[in-house]
Each structure stands twice: as C-alpha cells, then as structure tokens.
Amino acid sequence: MLDIKLPEFEKKVYPELELSLLEPSYKINLRGKNRDFFTKAGKLLSIMLPIESNTSANIKNINALWLSPDEWLIYGKDIDKNLEINLNNEISKLKYGSVTNVSDQWVIINFKGKNIFEVLSKGSPFNFNDFKGKKNVVVQTLLNNVDVILHHQEINDLNLFVRKSFSEHLWLWINDSSRFI
C-alpha cells in the first residue's frame, strides 16, 4: 500500500446532517466468477459475497459491496495486510480471480442524518426514493459530475466512496450544498 497523505476534512454538522471522513479504512477489489473463487473468498472473509445487484453483505466491521456480476469492493477497519496476503495466495496465485488493494484510490465520506438524500439529490441524476428506505444497498452514480459509490449501510447512515483525486472538490461541493437544506 502506498503511503499517501489523506485529505484533511474536518467533521461538519448541519441541520439533520453530519459529515465526516471515514478513514483509514482498508479497501480491496475482488474479481472472479467461478465456484472456487466464491468458496475461497467466502472462507477467507467469513462472509458470502452478495450476488444480487446493488446489495451488500457485512460481518463485524467488514463490508462486501456488489459492483458488478464479477466484482466486489471489500472494506472495513478489521481488514489487515494478512487478509490481503491470504486472498492473494488463495485466489490470485491459483488463478481463480484477482485481488487488488485499492485503499489509496478511494476516500470514504460518511453521511449521517435525515437530510442525506436532500443533499445528494441536488447533484445526482439517481432517483433516491426507493434507495433511502432500504439498508445494505449500493449504487454507483454521479454526484456533481463525479463518479461515486454509495453504500447505504443503515437508515440515515451512508458511506460515499470517491476517488482521491476528486475528493476535495466533492467535499467542498457537499459542504456548500449542505448549507442550503
């Protein structure tokens, strides 16, 4: 993992909305689709990867987000270097799939409160009506013309994944938009 300095965002509180940086967090991209891949990944993560589109699964502090039929984003504070090494040894080296550490690629911004979707709706073409009433759902969309992944883990608790190079721009836009809700 590269030693790159994370953006420094101060926690912000607005009416019915709290924004904070959720870092550091280990992030691994998994790709594969055969039975051996699912068996090895499930055993090593102690979690079954979700196979239904736009869903997630979690155990303790490890989350698995469905990104496509053969791709998942695994993240959490309980993930360590040993898990990545084990996944590489049991999946990549045996050619069942690929394991890529993307910890330095993504920044996670956590949203908490009732006004999450009022802010997101200002800059996203996605219709959040069904999404906001469900937990453990995932969507990849645009927010202020920036690609993001949204993980609605609990009602009124959402993690937004943004590429590090766009994180400061998006953080400023989110804060500006949050002032007027």
Provide a descriptive summary of the structure in words.
24% of the residues lie in helices and 37% in strands. The chain has helices at 35-45, 81-92, 116-121, 164-178, and strands spanning 12-14, 17-21, 26-32, 56-59, 62-68, 71-76, 97-101, 106-112, 137-143, 146-154, 157-163. The chain is globular, with a radius of gyration of 16 Å. The chain has a 6-stranded antiparallel β-sheet, covered by helices on one side. A 5-stranded antiparallel β-sheet has the order 4-5-6-3-7. The chain has 181 residues and is of the alpha+beta class. It is built from 4 helices and 11 strands; from the N terminus they run βββαβββαββαβββα. It folds into 2 domains: 10-25 and 104-181, Probable tRNA modification gtpase trme, domain 1 (Gyrase A, domain 2, 2-Layer Sandwich); 26-102, 2-Layer Sandwich (Alpha-Beta Plaits).
Radius of gyration: 16 Å
> What is the structural class?
alpha+beta
Q: Kindly report the CATH topology of the largest domain.
A: Gyrase A, domain 2
Helix content: 10-25%
What kind of sheet is the major sheet? 6 strands, antiparallel
Features:
181 residues, alpha+beta, Gyrase A, domain 2, Alpha-Beta Plaits, six-stranded antiparallel beta sheet, five-stranded antiparallel beta sheet, 4 helices
Provide a compact summary of the structure.
This protein has helices at 35-45, 81-92, 116-121, 164-178, and strands spanning 12-14, 17-21, 26-32, 56-59, 62-68, 71-76, 97-101, 106-112, 137-143, 146-154, 157-163. The protein is globular. It has 181 residues and is an alpha+beta fold.
